[in-house]
Amino acid sequence: MKTKWWHNYPWRNIQTNMRQIDMKDIDAQQYVSELKAFGASLAMINVGGIIASYETELEDQTQSDYLSGDSMGTIIDACHAAGLRVIARMDFSKVREPIFHKHPDWAYRSAEGKIINYNGDVHACINGGYQQEYAYKIMREVLEKFPIDGVFFNMGGFTDTDYSYNYYGFCHCDNCKKKFRERFGLEIPTEKNMKDERYRKYLLFKEQVVAEEKSRMADFVHSINPNVAVDLYDIGRVESNTEYKRTLPYYQYSSSSNTRVLRGISSTLIPSNCSVDFIGFFYRHVAVSAAQQKLRLYQELANLGGLDYYLIGRLDNHQDKTGFPAIKEVFSFHKQHEDIYTKTLRSCATTLLLKSKIWETLAEERGWVRALTENHINFDEALEDEFLSHPLEKYATIIVPGIEKLASASVAKLTEFAASGGDVVVVGNSAYYDEQYAIVNNPFSGLLGIEAMEYRSNDMISSMLKRTEDELKRFPSMKETEVLMLGDQYLYARYGKEVEKLLSLIPPHLYGPPERCYYTQETTLPGLTINPIGKGRGIFIPWQPGTLFYREGYDNTFFFLSDVLLSILGEKPLAKDLTPMVEVTYSKEIGDAFRLVQLVNTSGHFGTSYFKALEVQDVVLTVPCETKLSSVTSLKSGKEVSFTQHQGEVTITLPVLGEFDCLVLR
User: Which of 502, 499, 505 minimizes the C-alpha distance to 470?
Assistant: First the structure.
């Protein structure tokens, strides 16, 4: 089978999300020249959908009124002549208002029958005739007119929120109502309520429809041209972005985590997490900090992804170019070392963190990402489908961070993994719903040794967990504190006799006035349990330490998470004494021709700002490696780095770390 062009391609993508007016005076040669100056190898260009940036022959695709510059065909040809691949950006989420009036059945409809009309763009329903039929006519025209190399579909799925973040509710168009009724024999609900079976079935309905449409469109594109890379089928593309007045805290590991999830366990997707140039929808022309842009791109490299940068408009007429030097620097570094980054690389991680969704991240997941990263533990992330479809022999530990919907097959696979000798950590209310969104009261009874899951309390403020002196050896970070902050949620359960219970719950108590701030009750309810199962262990944490650490960030919670990882699970950090502000990853070329230790310095993240990272001196790293090495080289300095090798481990001393480095072990 012939290898597709995107496999092992030097992925440096720039998405120029062009406005209509950008086609008015676009010069193809200048456009290409700007891309080449950045070191780009791909260009993503708005081609069709809401607005056709070319002369379309389809009457129900609105053609731009600004096609006086070089044509789309000329631009694509110029890109190809310069060695650049071209990905067409398509958007079928909306139609212009005149098209809606011709085809009112194409539109999203609220429960009251209203449309979403945002500045003359009307939201189209995924189950309507536009996305189900007409989009395929547009896609065929684009594929037959232009020699594109890939296609990206913007804003797919059920779009029930506008650009001002106004929420309009579930779509109740006739197409949705008919399809939902045929599948489930129910009417579409009007409110988000997990206690309502209709709402749970509606969530399942949306998942099914989106998955079906993704697969159908990919098959359609490949039937016309199998050498076109399709979004979320051949290319995994998400983004790291910001927004004005977004709820804090900022998530500094967005780019790392997104790239890891796209990469998965052994995914064939090209991981392409784009760094969004602008502050948010409301400020599309103002760039975020250059240091933040650079951090995101280095995190993509460290986690074995391609480089991807996205801005509004063209490069030549962009009004805020403050991020350009940073983008060029990272692109240039990647281009200089294509011989390394275009090889097939695999993570050396033996720890796996399950992830709920691509575009949404639970606070609990983010907290565990922080804890793993800041303890310098090499780890992978994977969605459930990836987890179910791949063997798990490389892993010693799997963490399930409060993912409430989990298939029964996943529960069985996790139980089997533990029985075969692995450690499985289950947090909070994981797997409360199965793959059909049916409620499962005690899903991990066998894995965790839980006889009955009694109830969940969401009113645990002021409650704590207390350690004993005997437990100090299991929780060495708690040497100077006897208690842990618990947060809001706790799961009350009854455990089997073989289950080891650690820490004890102090229930909610008075916290004011100061004269009465003391507790009078301690329980034997645990803060962590360990159940021996076969050759392995099922470990249960009946509260949400990841959520607490992500939102609050106190040492008190970090102590607990670190002790779970390092003491109870026995994880070995890649850098024992290194500041938590440096992210470290470890990977190898698939044939073990070389290995990579990559370091991303996040010390420039300060409060809500991003500045240039501070240098870190005398970085000592220890990585497992049975292969005898002859050299360790820094790609940043070009110099060899001192190392020693003993009993299956390599200890490396890097004299100084700037913003980033990649060490090549041969």
Answer: 502
* DSSP code for 573: -
Ramachandran class of 329: left when φ > 0, alpha when ψ lies in -120 to 50, beta otherwise: alpha
The per-residue DSSP string of 418-443 comes to HHTT-EEEEETTTTSB-TT--B-SST
Record the tokens describing residue 284, joined without a space: 């599309």
Q: In the prediction, which pLDDT does 268 show?
A: 81
Domain that holds residue 644: 582-665
In the numeric block, which tokens belong to residue 395? 């892993």
Domain identity same for 388 and 502: yes
Q: Cα torsion at 517, 520, 521, 527 (round to 10°)?
A: 40
Q: Among 608, 646, 605, which Cα is nearest to 629's?
A: 646
pLDDT tens-digit series, residues 46-88: 999 999 999 999 999 999 999 999 999 999 999 999 999 999 9
Q: Position 324: which residue type?
A: F
In this structure, what is the dihedral angle of CA atoms 617, 622, 625, 631, given to the nearest 10 degrees?
Answer: 20
Q: Which residues of the chain have pLDDT under 70?
A: 1
Helices (H), 375-473: 384-389, 408-419, 445-448
The pLDDT of residue 1 is 58
| Number of residues that this document lists for the chain | 666
Closest CA to 205 of 161, 263, 260, 158: 158
User: Could you tell me where the beta strands, DSSP code E, fall in 61-191?
Assistant: 85-91, 94-96, 117-118, 121-123, 150-154
Q: Can you tell me the distance from the alpha carbon of 217 to that of 136, in angstroms, rounded to the nearest whole number? A: 8
Same domain, yes or no: 25 and 133: yes
- What pLDDT, on a 0 to 100 scale, did the predictor assign at position 360? 87
| CATH number for 495 | 3.40.50.880
The answer to whether the beta carbons of residues 479 and 460 sit under 8 Å apart is no
Among 306, 333, 331, which residue's Cα sits nearest to residue 9? 306
Q: In terms of domains, do 358 and 430 share one?
A: yes
Q: In total, how many domains does the chain have? A: 3
DSSP 124: B
Distances from the Cα of 451 to the Cα of 42, 231, 416, 440, 644, angstroms = 56, 45, 19, 14, 50
Query: Could you give the CA distance from residue 133 to residue 95 in angstroms, rounded to a whole number?
Result: 14
- Residue in 364, 362, 363, 392 with CA at minimum distance from that of residue 380: 392
Q: Which 8-state DSSP code applies to residue 405? A: B
The CA distance from 655 to 641, in Å, is: 8
Residue ending a domain, among 344, 379, 404, is 344
